[in-house]
């Protein structure tokens, strides 16, 4: 009785979960601070950590996190890393922290996070946890007075395609998947317990200006902009490399097709002659001939990712330039008055 | 007391000149631990991590809670847990060492000396941080203590907790923006331009304030204050002196640079969206 009740409850939960898509990631202020601290202290090294929390309906609550030590390419240390993770989870459980992995966080420099590794990590996580997110924090951008946090997940259609590992143009067209559809950004909500809110209100009276304002009014954005442009140019180079790969492929493909046509015509003419002579016609296909071997189509994944990356850089540049414009106008107005 | 001779109650010489600096994360973490404390527990206890800066300031940067059991006159800390957690934390950041311990509740209680003793064996001169989660003591909810020995002759009598100044300025938190840390829920992170707008509004308000003040002084409504006057004149003087042409040229050049970059990135973006549409629309081969 109790058993069947529990099962139906579980089933109910399972069906419900499928039905509601993830809409909001709700992060505790504590997690925000922890992520910032970890990423900033070890910047410019790129770091990662695990997010713990709860999955409630369409909201994914991130209530705690812990950092990973910097990874090294060594089997032994890797095993130690896994131990560390288990140990940490056990320890946190003892002090009543939600011990449910909901994803991971990582730092990035100038938004250059769209890599194949990220997708692979995503797929690894996704195997165990149906709903996971990756929170990306950019310390370089935060120096400009912006809280550069982003929550990402892979779109379902992309994941399906990735599992089948078939990134041909035809497949992509069939599923109507383009580079914008790889990642889905999920809106972030920040929450704090009432206790923390009370403490912050008590400790920090309302001020007219804060550090954020100073950072925002900083006139020199050139280093940031320059780095962004550099990355953009690099990406463009990569993109044109990818494009050349495709051109090469298509050239080969069309050459092969003309060869096939020529071969076919020859064979038909031959068959005609044979028929005229009263002999058995030869088959019109010959799998052993090298010109019929299909040329593998290069994967579009790389070019998709690069395109995505370019788009990110463009957005960042636009954002920064927009800010600069307002700063310059402000400067001008100040100087004139 | 031991055999003859006058014994002197020795008070510690001049108060220690230690100060402590606390990272907002620590407060957040302590609050979180307190909210998640076990049912019957009245307070949480834990270890503080950080480092001692060259000038003697204790920089408290991280912390973790340690489970404990408390009865009327006994405190039992889970020492294994403490050591496990410490080694895990140090794998991530080896520079953070134990600097002391924290407890919620107001001020020092009876059991504190015992725990302090334990931490004294881990690190010389630990700091004891108390966070009053009940807000009993108006305005002073977070305090830091060090322990000094009170001895009579050679004999140690007791340990005395002495409060040390605590620096609660939160540059880290400022960067995140109090707006999102103060309230219980924020639906959306502020974007680039919204932040800029808020900043400009604040700047304008400040300038207005200065204007008002100067006007008031000039008209004799407010007693002039030399210090404020100097600050204002310093601020005005810090604007570099340019001829209008030079300034215009500078601003316009910057504008043009930025426009060029903007143009370039917009072109790239347009190109991308164009390629995308073509790619999905065209029936290649």
UniProtKB/TrEMBL annotation, chain A:
Self-association state and partner proteins as the record states: Component of the eukaryotic translation initiation factor 3 (eIF-3) complex.
Cellular component terms per the entry's GO annotation: eukaryotic 43S preinitiation complex; eukaryotic 48S preinitiation complex; eukaryotic translation initiation factor 3 complex
MF-aspect GO terms: metallopeptidase activity; translation initiation factor activity
InterPro entries from the UniProt entry: eIF3h, eIF3h_C, JAMM/MPN+_dom, JAMM_MPN+_peptidase_M67A, MPN
Ranges of compositional bias, category Basic and acidic residues: 267-278
Entry's family note: Belongs to the eIF-3 subunit H family.
Keyword 4Fe-4S part of the UniProt annotation: no
Functional summary from the UniProt entry: Component of the eukaryotic translation initiation factor 3 (eIF-3) complex, which is involved in protein synthesis of a specialized repertoire of mRNAs and, together with other initiation factors, stimulates binding of mRNA and methionyl-tRNAi to the 40S ribosome. The eIF-3 complex specifically targets and initiates translation of a subset of mRNAs involved in cell proliferation.
Classification via Gene3D superfamilies: Cytidine Deaminase, domain 2 (3.40.140.10)
Protein name as annotated: Eukaryotic translation initiation factor 3 subunit H
Taxon lineage: Eukaryota, Viridiplantae, Streptophyta, Embryophyta, Tracheophyta
UniProt keyword terms in alphabetical order: Cytoplasm, Initiation factor, Protein biosynthesis
Every MPN domain range: 25-158
Automatic annotation (TrEMBL), chain B:
Protein location: Cytoplasm
Name of the molecule in the record: Eukaryotic translation initiation factor 3 subunit F
CDD domains (UniProt xref): MPN_eIF3f
Complex formation: Component of the eukaryotic translation initiation factor 3 (eIF-3) complex.
Any one of the GO CC terms: eukaryotic translation initiation factor 3 complex, eIF3m
Family statement: Belongs to the eIF-3 subunit F family.
Limits of the MPN domain: 20-151
Alphabetic keyword roster: Cytoplasm, Initiation factor, Protein biosynthesis
Molecular functions (GO terms): metallopeptidase activity; translation initiation factor activity; translation initiation factor binding
Domain of life: Eukaryota
The protein's role, per its UniProt record: Component of the eukaryotic translation initiation factor 3 (eIF-3) complex, which is involved in protein synthesis of a specialized repertoire of mRNAs and, together with other initiation factors, stimulates binding of mRNA and methionyl-tRNAi to the 40S ribosome. The eIF-3 complex specifically targets and initiates translation of a subset of mRNAs involved in cell proliferation.
The UniProt record lists the keyword Chaperone: no
Species this protein is from: Oldenlandia corymbosa var. corymbosa
GO biological process: formation of cytoplasmic translation initiation complex
Pfam families: JAB (PF01398), MitMem_reg (PF13012)
């Amino acid at each position: 009785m109790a058993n069947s009740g529990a099962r139906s409850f579980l089933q109910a939960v399972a069906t419900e979960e499928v039905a509601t898509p993830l809409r909001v990631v709700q992060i505790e202020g504590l997690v925000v601070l922890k992520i910032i601290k970890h990423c900033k202290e070890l910047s410019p090294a790129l770091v990662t950590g695990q997010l713990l929390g709860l999955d409630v309906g369409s909201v994914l609550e991130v209530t705690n996190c812990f950092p990973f030590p910097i990874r090294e390419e060594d089997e032994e240390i890797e095993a130690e890393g896994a131990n560390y993770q288990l140990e940490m989870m056990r320890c946190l459980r003892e002090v009543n922290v939600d011990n449910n992995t909901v994803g991971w966080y990582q730092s990035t420099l100038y938004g250059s996070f769209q890599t194949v590794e990220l997708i692979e990590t995503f797929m690894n996580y996704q195997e165990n946890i149906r709903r996971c997110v990756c929170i990306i924090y950019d310390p370089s951008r935060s120096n400009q007075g912006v809280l550069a946090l982003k929550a990402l997940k892979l779109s379902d259609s992309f994941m399906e395609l990735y599992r089948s590992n078939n990134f041909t143009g035809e497949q992509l067209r069939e599923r109507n998947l383009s580079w914008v559809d790889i990642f889905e950004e999920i809106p972030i909500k920040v929450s704090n317990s009432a206790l923390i809110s009370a403490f912050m209100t008590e400790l920090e009276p309302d001020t007219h200006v804060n550090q954020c304002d100073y950072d925002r009014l900083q006139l020199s954005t050139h280093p940031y902009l320059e780095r962004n442009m550099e990355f953009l140019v690099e990406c463009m180079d990569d993109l044109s490399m990818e494009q050349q790969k495709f051109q090469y492929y298509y050239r080969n493909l069309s050459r092969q097709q003309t060869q096939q046509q020529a071969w076919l015509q020859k064979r038909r003419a031959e068959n005609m002659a044979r028929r005229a002579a009263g002999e058995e016609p030869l088959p019109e296909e010959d799998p052993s001939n090298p010109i019929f071997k299909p040329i593998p189509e290069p994967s579009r994944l790389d070019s998709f990712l690069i395109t995505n990356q370019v788009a990110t850089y463009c957005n960042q540049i636009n954002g920064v330039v927009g800010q600069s414009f307002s700063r310059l106008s402000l400067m001008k107005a100040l100087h004139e008055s | 007391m031991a055999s003859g001779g006058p014994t002197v109650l020795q008070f510690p010489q001049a108060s220690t000149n230690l100060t402590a600096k606390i990272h907002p994360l620590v407060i957040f973490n302590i609050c979180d631990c307190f909210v998640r404390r076990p049912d019957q527990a009245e307070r949480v206890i834990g270890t503080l991590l950080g480092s001692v800066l060259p000038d003697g300031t204790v920089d408290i940067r991280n912390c973790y809670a340690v489970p404990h059991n408390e009865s009327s006159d006994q405190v039992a800390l889970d020492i294994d847990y403490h050591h496990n957690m410490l080694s895990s934390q140090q794998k991530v950041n080896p520079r953070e060492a134990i600097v002391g311990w924290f407890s919620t509740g107001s001020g020092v209680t009876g059991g504190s000396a015992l725990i302090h003793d334990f931490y004294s064996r881990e690190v010389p001169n630990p700091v004891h941080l108390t966070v009053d989660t009940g807000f009993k003591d108006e305005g002073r909810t977070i305090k830091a203590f060090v322990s000094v020995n009170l001895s009579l002759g050679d004999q140690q009598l007791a340990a005395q907790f002495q409060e040390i100044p605590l620096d609660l300025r939160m540059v880290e938190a400022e960067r995140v923006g109090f707006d999102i840390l103060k309230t219980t829920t924020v639906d959306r992170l502020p974007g680039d331009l919204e932040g800029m707008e808020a900043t400009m509004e604040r700047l304008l308000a400040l300038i207005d304030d200065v204007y008002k003040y100067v006007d008031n002084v000039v008209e004799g409504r407010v007693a002039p204050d030399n210090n404020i006057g100097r600050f204002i004149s310093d601020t005005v003087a810090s604007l570099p002196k340019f001829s209008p042409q030079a300034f215009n040229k500078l601003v316009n050049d910057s504008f043009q640079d930025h426009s060029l970059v903007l143009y370039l990135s917009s072109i790239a973006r347009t190109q991308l969206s164009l390629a995308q549409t073509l790619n999905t629309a065209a029936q290649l081969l």
